[in-house]
Amino acid sequence: GLAFRFVDPDASASAGAIAELIRAEYTSAEAMAAARDCDVVTFEFENVPVAAARELARNVMFLPPPEALEVAQDRLLEKTCFVELGIETPRFEAVASPEELDRALERIGTPAVLKARRQGYDGKGQSAIDAPARSRQAWERAGSSAAEHGFIVEQLVAFERELSIIAVRGRNGETRTYPLIENHHAGGILSFSVTPAPRLTAELQSVAADYAARLLARFDYVGVLTLELFDVGGRLLANEFAPRVHNSGHLTIEGAETSQFENHLRAILGFPLGSTRVPRPAGMLNLIGTMPERARLLEVDGAHLYDYGKAPRAGRKLGHVTLCRDTTDAVLHELESSKRALDE
Amino acid sequence: GLAFRFVDPDASASAGAIAELIRAEYTSAEAMAAARDCDVVTFEFENVPVAAARELARNVMFLPPPEALEVAQDRLLEKTCFVELGIETPRFEAVASPEELDRALERIGTPAVLKARRQGYDGKGQSAIDAPARSRQAWERAGSSAAEHGFIVEQLVAFERELSIIAVRGRNGETRTYPLIENHHAGGILSFSVTPAPRLTAELQSVAADYAARLLARFDYVGVLTLELFDVGGRLLANEFAPRVHNSGHLTIEGAETSQFENHLRAILGFPLGSTRVPRPAGMLNLIGTMPERARLLEVDGAHLYDYGKAPRAGRKLGHVTLCRDTTDAVLHELESSKRALDE
Q1: What's phi and psi for A41, nearest 5 deg?
Q2: If both were cysteines, with which of A38, A77, A329, B130 could A71 make a disulfide (CB 3.0 to 4.6 Å apart)?
Q3: pTM of the predicted model as reported, rounded to 2 decimal places
Q4: In angstroms, rounded to a whole number, what is the distance separating the alpha carbons of residues A262 and A248?
Q5: pLDDT of residue B138
């Protein structure tokens, strides 16, 4: 019962298949005009220019707040925000020259990773440093792409696994969190996710939910926010947050009583939030690079296929499959064997 | 990942909100042209003219088969089909005059109900006969509307409840059925449904599934079919079938592993069918006549709202709410109390 209008610089954006799509740059007059008669404007891509977000927020209800977008777009602001909020995060320092990098490495130690402050996802714009002697090499490898915005260097944590927590906050401040999700990567790209995360304890969930709640409160946030965490022997370190629905949260479509998408809409529209309960363990497998044969995916018991209708390209997320099982182990087993079958 | 094009004589049809909508009569040249470059054509409204269905079926893949539509549109063909397939149904006879009605009532007894052979749903075009002396009155009440197509008179069964079973058959003949649904009416219109039906036994499910399978096989059917049944002390009598997804099956959206809609598409596209398992009891409440305030509906724990975007009108189905609970009793309790709250 809701009507949508999408703005995207790419005329082939998937949203065009189900709603009005206006092809325009985010900062263009067309984008501003498209927003004018909307009840609320939101985004599901964190590289929307903050200037466009602020301009929109002056004219229409724009949620989540542009400040969350601004902080999420800059790794230095983001990590500083974690520290200010008492959210544990790997040690880090801003570095603007090879000399600063060397000095920072003395304090942080190696292994470390040099990251461009801005842009970059799925491991792009990042350069690992095994030993202090390799710092110049890392600087040069990383330097050209994003030097204008500067870098941070951070401790490369030997984490056991990556977890994510999806949280949602309504206009009235009501906050709900989904059970922690365990994420498995391949080649720096999210490959599959499962929820509730294996070996999930009440304490782990409570720490993650508390961290997410601090971020939501900090921005007077409205909508869905995702926090990525490293699990280091039961200690959670924040890696980054995304001010939007998240790839790892796609499993909420079938897995949770209310999907991350529905809850994002409920939040920004001022409706009561929906239950974030996960009645049965759920999983999601990304379809990357090439689209497998549909019938093969659909013959997996309980599988649901989401095909974004995008042109195949190496490393590109073209779709995903979700499924539920009676146990987390059974979900993981199915995801792993499906992934193996697709890789072959 | 599928692309849709809809044809409807009504330019305000709900489908227009999410896909291309061509406003045209079903039998028009525009409708035929719209179908030409589709991989498959289907329907979700059983009053599509059979002539249009047959014409389409000559030119494109058209599923389910037009014959199922033809039989479902005529109560005499439909009931005769039940009898031929060994599916129990209330006693009935075709009647073309008041005299034939009187003679039929001698065999069938009263109470009975006179029904137009064609058109009519939600109790329209029907006239109850309490006693033989009332037959002329019933004839006159029913007569004007649909006399051209004739009538049937059938035994008015004192049933305990109405059940429905949703079944789906793939292009390769694979057949699956959902658990029986219990339907509650108000003023002749479906008010709410719950699945699995309370006091559902393996035998009840097996009889219903067998009846549905006979119908599917009879038409070499592909897609979703719904069979409505009266439960008379554990004996099931077929009332009617619908060659389409069904209002009572809307609860499969959240309630079943694969919704009736997804399974209909899987079937007609030749994909493997999805699981029809219902992991948790599920319910559906129709929103009829006027649309309640959204926030009020959404604050019910686990509730999902479907608003068809239709103009309010007495007796019109404007949307529905689905929800799941841990027990069937809890679902029924929630539906009943929600309905009471809406009625007040």
Answers
A1: -120, 135
A2: A77
A3: 0.94
A4: 15
A5: 87
Chain B residues with beta carbon closer than 8 angstroms to that of A266 = 298
ipTM of predicted complex: 0.91
Residue with tokens 């977000």: A53
From CA A170, how far away is CA B299, in angstroms rounded? 13
Q: Which of B18, B301, B306 sits opposite A18 (nearest CB)?
A: B18
CA distance A257 to A278: 6
CB contact under 8 A, A257 and B299: no
Helices (H), chain B: 29-35, 50-59, 66-72, 75-84, 98-108, 135-146, 202-218, 252-255, 260-269, 294-298, 328-343
- What are the tens digits of pLDDT across the range B221-278? 999 999 999 999 999 999 999 999 999 999 999 999 999 999 999 999 999 999 999 9
**What residues of chain B lie within 8 A of the CB of A172, using their CB?**
none
Q: Which amino acid is at B44?
A: E
Assign residue B120 a region: left if phi > 0, alpha if psi is -120 to 50, beta otherwise?
A: left
Chain B residues bordering chain A (beta-carbon distance below 8 Å): 1-3, 17-19, 254, 257-258, 262, 266, 270-272, 274-275, 277, 279-280, 294-295, 298-299, 301-309, 319, 324
- Tell me which residue in A272, A303, A304 faces B295 most closely, judged by beta carbons: A272
Task: Tell me how far CA of residue A315 lies from CA of A115, A125, A197, A287, A340, in angstroms.
Answer: 20, 15, 25, 9, 17
Record the tokens describing residue A172, joined without a space. 């009235």
Which residues contact residue A195 at a Cβ distance below 8 angstroms, ignoring those fewer than 6 apart? A178, A179, A180, A181, A182, A251, A252, A255, A278, A281, A282, A283
How many of the other CB atoms lie within 10 Å of CB of A158? 9
- Residue among B79, B80, B73, B75 at smallest CA distance from B45: B73
Alpha carbon of residue A240 to chain centroid: 8
* B chain contacts of residue A324, beta-carbon cutoff 8 Å: 257, 279
Nearest-10 Cα torsion for B322, B326, B332, B335: -30
CB A103 within 8 A of CB A65: no
- Provide CB contacts within 8 A for A228, sequence distance 6+: A162, A163, A164, A183, A238, A239, A240, A241, A242
Question: pLDDT digits over B61-103, tens only?
Answer: 999 999 999 999 999 999 999 999 999 999 999 999 999 999 9
User: What are the respective helix, strand and coil percentages of chain B, to the nearest 5?
Assistant: 35, 25, 40
Strand partners, B182: B163, B194
Residue B311 neighbours by CB distance under 10 Å: 8
Q: Before A64, cis peptide (omega within 30)?
A: yes
DSSP bridge pairs for A126 = A115
